Amino acid sequence: INTTNMPSLPHRDQIDQSHLETLSECPWCRSEARIKLFVENGFDYVQCLACKLIYLGTRLKEDFVSRIYDSNSYHGAASAEWTLRVGQKRLALLGRLDRSLRIHEDGCGAGGFAAACRDAGHEITASDVGSDAAQRARTLFGVEVRAGSLAAMAIPDSSLDVVASFNLLSHLYRPWEYMRE
Questions:
Q1: Integer Cα distance of 21 and 100 in angstroms
Q2: β-bridge mates for residue 22, sequence order
Q3: Are 156 and 181 in contact (CB under 8 A)?
Q4: In terms of Cα–Cα distance, which of 80, 61, 52 is closest to 17?
Q5: Alpha-carbon distance 172 to 165, whole Å?
Q6: Distances from the Cα of 65 to the Cα of 1, 81, 98, 119, angstroms
Q7: Is 38 helix (H, G, I), strand (E, B) or coil?
Q8: pTM for the full model?
Q9: DSSP conformation class of 120
Q10: What's the sign of the alpha-carbon dihedral 65, 67, 73, 79?
Q11: H helical segments located in 80-119
Q12: How many Å apart are CA 139 and CA 81, to the nearest integer?
């Protein structure tokens, strides 16, 4: 997938430093062993040597993260065509899915995957913590997206067959709780 149009964080220098936290351990496995892979917009991308998760070495504190995802400059960077193509490729990665499956995408961004699922005849629901993402998905694709986290959706147990999330794990503050949900 060409990442030229992917959303990105604003430069670290544009963010109030009191809104940032530096991680001393992997948010997934708690290992302190890591290597720096690259720097983008002033943020160190590191990889855990134990579990291989790639995450930000310094990130926004959880109380401030919605300020990034609720910014049109984050989700508004990609064109509708590019967003839908990425969604179609992600759907293809899941293989041939029975149309009767109930799918939910968490962290859906501008709604490309949800639109691809709907266009392929799947029952799809979607959510994103960025309220601008929900609006962009409605505007671009007519996809209904609920603003909030998966846990906040209060989806009844056993009511879904597939939960999809792309580029989400490294954004989570409590990944084990997320996986339990």
A1: 43
A2: 58
A3: no
A4: 61
A5: 12
A6: 26, 27, 36, 31
A7: strand
A8: 0.74
A9: T
A10: positive
A11: 80-93, 112-119
A12: 13
- Convert the pLDDT of each residue in 34-72 to its tens digit: 999 999 889 999 999 999 988 899 998 988 877 776 666
Poorest-pLDDT segment among 68-77, 88-97, 99-108? 68-77
C-alpha distances (whole Å) from 93 to each of 55, 85, 88 are 23, 12, 9
CB 169 within 8 A of CB 53: yes
- Order of all β-strands in the sheet with 54-56: 34-40, 43-48, 54-56
Residue whose tokens read 């609006």: 135
Query: What is the per-residue pLDDT for 71?
Result: 61
Cα radius of gyration rounded to whole Å, the chain: 17
**116-125: average pLDDT:** 94
CB hemisphere CA count around 168 (13 angstroms): 20
| Residue 149 DSSP SS3 | coil
Reported as type and span, the H/E element at residue 157 is: none
